[in-house]
Structures are given as C-alpha cells and as structure tokens.
Amino acid sequence: MRHLRSRAALQATALTFSLVAGGALTTGTASATAPVTQQVTAPDAAAQVKKELRALEASFKGRIGAYAIDTATGRTVGYRSGERFPLLSTFKAPLCAAALHKARTSEPGLMEKVVKWTAADLKPNSPTTEKHVEDGLSVARLCEATITESDNTAANVILKQIGGPAGLTKYFRSLKDPISRLDRYETELNDWTAKEKRDTTTPAAIARDLRLLTAGNALQAKDREQLNAWLVANKTGDARIRAGLPRTWKIGDKTGTNGEIGGANDIAVVWPSGTSGAPIILAVYTHRTVAAADDAVVARTATILARGLGRL
C-alpha cells in the first residue's frame, strides 16, 4: 500500500497545470509532433516576461501577442498567446509548406510546374511576379518570391495550386491546428477589425505549426530543409525578430504588415548556436489603433521571449 501511495503521489506531481485565461501569460512544455497541454515550469521567469510585456504593451498603446518554444527543452513562454490576431503575410510560410507537401504526397512535379498569370492579376508589392507576366514562373520560384520578398501575386498563384484559402485552412487542420484559418486572397485578407475571425491565428497555434514544419516531421526532410532555406533568405525581417536577437544566431522568418491597423507580425525559427542544434520558435503579433507598424516592439518582444526561455 505504501508503494502504491508513493507511486500515486509521483504521478500526481507530474500532472500538467494549465493556464487558460484568454490574455494570460503561458509557460511550459510542448511536444515535437503535436500540441499538448502547457505546463507551468518556471514561475519566476514567467512573471518577469509578463511584467516586461505588459509594460511594453502599455508604451506601445496596442496589443501584443507572443509565444516561444525551445525545441531543445520543450519549454514554452507566451503572452496573449491564445488571442486571435490577423495573419497578414505570415500565412505565406505555411502556404509554401502546403505546396511542398502536396508535391511530395499527391502531385509530383508541382514545384517544377510553370504557372502563368495576367497583368490584371498583379497585386501591390509583387516585385518578382510583375517582371514575369509573359513567361510565368515555377511554383518553387514563386514560393521563393512569396517568402523572401512577400510577393503578393506569387502567394495568390500558389494558393490556387493548393485549393485556395480553404485549401490552406485544410492544411492547418492536418497539422492538428483547429484555430488558424485563411478565408481570402491577397490583398483583401488584410482588411481586418478586432472582431474579425477571418484570416486569423493565435501566437500559440502558428508557433506550433511552424515548429512542426521547420523542426518536426510534418514535412519530408528535404522539403523541411527547403522551407528553412527560404525563411533564412527572407529580406523583409531585419528590423523585427532578427533585430532583437544576437547577430551570430541563424534566423529564418516571415513577416506580416498592415500599417493601417498598426500591424507588425513576425514568425521565426532560430538556431542560437548559429548553424545547427535544436532551434527555438518565436511568434510575435501586434496591432493598435495608431496607423503605423512598430518594428522595434517586435524586436523587443523577441528579446524578452528569448530571455524568458533562458537563451539570453
């Protein structure tokens, strides 16, 4: 009986304690393959992250949502991590993952397929596709432009290859993500209000997706390497998460921006060792009533998250 009581006590000690408040700070551990209940493991660090992000949020005069996962330890830390924010262009990272997955599982040759569009299809911020209206580009080249330059027309063309916005939402569900959703194409998906659920995610949901795609087994190894290479080559994120972390760290990211709602987002896979090892995953989403995106707030949030994970 004493042995059974002792064993029961040990099991009880191992139970997960969840933080479920809507805008609350969350810390804990997360599985490498699927979302699990979050565990409170570092209350002192959690309290400090909460204090710093609340102060930053007050000075920002808006809302900050953040979530970070250390894939080496499983430890997580977050703030407003369960609240919805507009995806903006951060959807383009899982979009290209969906294309890679489709090419690998159901449509061989998709990435080499050359797709064309018309001048009428061009959207603002399409630096690559505006030069190739006549000859088109391969889906792989379109993915490169979508992630590294946030080319909006390229993203729309790829979306049509995977079944449109509904196709990407279906892909989110295949990752066991019941929250993230895409409902519209560029650039309509950027039209967003605080009550809008369309084209949204939560920091925790998208961070878990990014973990599966860049450090987990959601993609075949070569496809995972390709996605990470595109993210590392991104040209739009130097002032955001990258700016808040040491320059020696290897970082791949995808930004999202809508200055009209003060929206500045960034999701990233980060290798603190510089070249290899288990990465950390960060997701930072912001918005406010002031019509101006604030890169510095995203950078500062990244610093706070990395410190909360014990990496700084």
TrEMBL record:
GO terms for biological process: beta-lactam antibiotic catabolic process; response to antibiotic. InterPro entries: Beta-lactam/transpept-like (IPR012338), Beta-lactam_cat (IPR045155), Beta-lactam_class-A (IPR000871). Its EC number is 3.5.2.6. Residues 65-286 form the Beta-lactamase class A catalytic domain. Residues 1-32 form the signal peptide. It comes from the Bacteria. This is Beta-lactamase class A. The lineage of its organism: Bacteria, Bacillati, Actinomycetota, Actinomycetes, Streptosporangiales.
